[in-house]
Amino acid sequence: MSPHPPEPPAVGDRRQRLWRIIFLSDTTAGRLFDAVLLVLVAASVLVVALESVAELQPRWGLTMARAEWVFTILFTLEYVARLAVVRRRWRYATSFFGFVDLVSILPSYLGIFFADTHYLLILRVFRLLRVFRVFKLAEHVTEGAVLLSALRASRNKITVFLVSVLAVVTVEGTFIYILESEHNPRFSNIPQSIYWAVVTLTTVGYGDITPVTVPGKMMATVIMLTGFSIIAVPTGVVTAELGREMARVRRRDVRCASCGWDEHDARALHCQHCGARLP
Amino acid sequence: MSPHPPEPPAVGDRRQRLWRIIFLSDTTAGRLFDAVLLVLVAASVLVVALESVAELQPRWGLTMARAEWVFTILFTLEYVARLAVVRRRWRYATSFFGFVDLVSILPSYLGIFFADTHYLLILRVFRLLRVFRVFKLAEHVTEGAVLLSALRASRNKITVFLVSVLAVVTVEGTFIYILESEHNPRFSNIPQSIYWAVVTLTTVGYGDITPVTVPGKMMATVIMLTGFSIIAVPTGVVTAELGREMARVRRRDVRCASCGWDEHDARALHCQHCGARLP
Amino acid sequence: MSPHPPEPPAVGDRRQRLWRIIFLSDTTAGRLFDAVLLVLVAASVLVVALESVAELQPRWGLTMARAEWVFTILFTLEYVARLAVVRRRWRYATSFFGFVDLVSILPSYLGIFFADTHYLLILRVFRLLRVFRVFKLAEHVTEGAVLLSALRASRNKITVFLVSVLAVVTVEGTFIYILESEHNPRFSNIPQSIYWAVVTLTTVGYGDITPVTVPGKMMATVIMLTGFSIIAVPTGVVTAELGREMARVRRRDVRCASCGWDEHDARALHCQHCGARLP
Amino acid sequence: MSPHPPEPPAVGDRRQRLWRIIFLSDTTAGRLFDAVLLVLVAASVLVVALESVAELQPRWGLTMARAEWVFTILFTLEYVARLAVVRRRWRYATSFFGFVDLVSILPSYLGIFFADTHYLLILRVFRLLRVFRVFKLAEHVTEGAVLLSALRASRNKITVFLVSVLAVVTVEGTFIYILESEHNPRFSNIPQSIYWAVVTLTTVGYGDITPVTVPGKMMATVIMLTGFSIIAVPTGVVTAELGREMARVRRRDVRCASCGWDEHDARALHCQHCGARLP
């Protein structure tokens, strides 16, 4: 998921204008293109989701199948247009969004050649991947860019955090297995007990698996209370990175020539410390 | 929900004083008006809520119906008073709070003309919208103003975030549908599976729908662990905005004598706009 | 819960030393007194809690009752000692902690005069209030003082927040009542529906009450997603206040005489901007 | 869990190089050693976890037992190698990670001498403690070091916080016991009621124990809403410490030529300790 749009065609190329509309949103036509695409994605996702509801099939099945074909043709046209205007076609086709674009239209076409098997049904569901395009659009918006930038900066810390959490739930799941497995069929093996530890530590708490023995409940209490503090880590990481990212936008990165002060408001004309004119 | 009260009548108008009492709370009478209103809103909301409890009807039904009429008459007087003192009546009547004021008294009057049908019952419930007036009062309080201001500043980022979350739960719901639908009637269609993904990602975890297959549980584990990090985003946004908002209050509230710039760092010695020495 | 200990006896009074041991913890004897008290509180709380377990009564009932009498006598001696060394007895007796001290020993004595009725059983439970003494000790610790100070600073904002949340859950509970009440006996009245809205918004999600209709589930999805952002508010408030509180401890609040710079590290001897010696 | 590796052998010792590979990761061989170890730990943890699944035993039991022996031998070699290269063997053997290393290989050897009793089964599970080695590796990574450092700084505040939470849930559990115990067998004793209060306050919300009376539900509502604010405390602590830790990395890493002070603000022009001009 590269944050940058693919390379534009050479300057002077007639496709330059089309590329701008399709990949950027700094023109009226570009913004309109994005808005229409967003509506189409939302509508097609809704139709694919509703097609899976058995109760709706008798009455709306045909209508939904037809709507789906309309969406498929429109997205095919869009995919062809994208391939036509980028400089390096193969590179786009093998990029994350190029892959999503293809995978979300293919199932409809494969349905013509194959009989309606179960695997095709699953394949169809991949059309829902279209929803990932929302992230492509999100990058156009400044707010989305700030959020993505903060999440990218947090990535390494959160990976280390998630690996540590995996270690913690393994140990916790093992201990609850030792305490409960003899008295509670829900904790019959370790993977299941680790699953319970994840459900508890993340405070999801389905309640499908719960401890019944007194030591098991005490262990659960310890997990829940430590989970309180553990859940604070990713929040702290994202908050710190987001604060830094937001401060960067507001601050003018200029050093005063006479006193060396380098922290100024984005709108400052004079150094706030010595009063000298800023460059 | 505009943060500003509606326009007052022209200066010299006798209604100016009444307007101040009703819409502001910078006088003793105004604060008393607000306090009485808050108690009335709380009491009327309680009565409407308790009227829906079937067990209380035989003994308290009549008393509650009478109390409801008292509240309706008081709120009607208040609505008429508000309309009477604002400069542009139509504008107030069509504003958010004007609409809430009307909708919360109408059901009682409609009940006279229509028979006691089911729709009327639902209509009655709209009287509970009176509770929204709390927000009108919240804006009077400094603390409320800071919170609202921070939430308003976070609005765009949180919208982008919620749209992204919708995309994420759609994909997650689809995958769990592929993994579970054959073995678990609870995941019989995609919308239901997306509902489960929302319940899981937000850590609500009712437990009415839970995965039963091993791949389904592994998928759930992944969703729960990533949800850990995703939930950190709105917290980070609100914390950063709130910190900024609270810092603004602490900032040096001094106006530059030569250029009029009035937003300076607490430590600034010179105006950051024109460079003049600050007083 | 005043953050300050009660007034000491006049200087020269022999009770001055005892007062220091009992109410402060800046001497070895004072710290020992606190440690012993903490262990006694923990042990007595454990005994009262275990006395309620019917399975333990036949074998351990008598032992626990005896232990309870030992604790009661020790806490009575402590209460008398506290009253003896403070300057204004009535003021201490009517303070929060004076009240807790009394209420937690009274039930045992009342049990002598009254027969063992159900009300006495409940009264006994009040001995568990001894656990509140932990907060009295928490104030002695620097870390506890910083946390309490941040929570005190957040108090007003969090009150405004909780009142707003009450308004939100009332409206949400009402809407889910309209959508579900006809099809789902769990949403049979509005207070119950508001209870469900609280369970959902706070992400507790017991699962004892869940929506069954499609519009009900859509409403639940909206509540869960908005709850995501709402839960961020108290976290943001506490984080911002805590950061401010922690920064206050580290920063030296001194203004440089030659350049006016007033933000220095706690260990700085010279102004970090102009190099002049700090006062 | 000391953040520092154990003491290396004396300079010039041939074991110096091996020590560097095993305990540090600043060489290619050291990083390779860490990577291989991480894969081995993950694989062995997976095998131990899967061995507890009864359904897999008939077909995969023998294969898993053999794989487990391979892992045991490899980890034994590693343990011997670690003991061989450190300067003080006893000190390493009694350290946290030395203990984990031993405890995770012992069960396999004990299995030879003892019959396959239930206790041995539990003993085997201790092999899962190998997963703790992940933390040993985490310290090698900068990101992990920052997180651990922030958590270490938060330790005291979070301990005070957890003790306070224990006091709060004790009181809350007691009150719900008074309100519910007569009508709801789920709240039959105080420890169970405290367990429920923990499940509710941490927003885990299994739903295996829920209040059924109206006062009980009102109490639950109060607990959930206050839990909203309480959960904000550890997040605030970790965020504040993490922000400080991350700021430390950004600080100007310059040493004053005249006094040697090396901790300066990024904007400092003069040494804040002796006042000399910084380079």
Brief synopsis:
4 copies of one chain form a homotetramer. Helices cover 66% and strands 1% of the residues of chain A.
Question: How is this fold's topology laid out?
Answer:
The structure is a homotetramer of 279-residue chains.
Chain A: H1 15-23, H2 28-51, H3 57-85, H4 89-93, H5 96-103, H6 106-113, H7 118-125, H8 133-138, H9 142-180, H10 190-201, H11 214-230, H12 232-250, E1 251-252, E2 264-265
Antiparallel strand pairs in A: 1-2
Features:
homotetramer; 2 strands; mainly alpha; 279 residues
Task: Summarize the structure in words.
Four copies of one chain form a homotetramer. By secondary structure, chain A is mostly helical. The first copy, chain A, is 66% helix and 1% strand. Chain A contains twelve helices and two strands; from the N terminus they run ααααααααααααββ. Chain A has a two-stranded antiparallel ribbon with strand order 1-2. Chain A is flat and about 75 Å long.
Provide a count of the helices of chain A: 12
Average pLDDT of chain A: 80
Biggest interface pair, counts: C-D, 65 and 58 residues
Provide the spatial order of strands within the biggest beta sheet of chain A.
1-2
Our estimate of the beta-strand percent of chain A is under 5%
Quaternary state of this entry equals homotetramer
Q: Tell me the total number of β-strands of chain A.
A: 2
Shape of chain A: flat
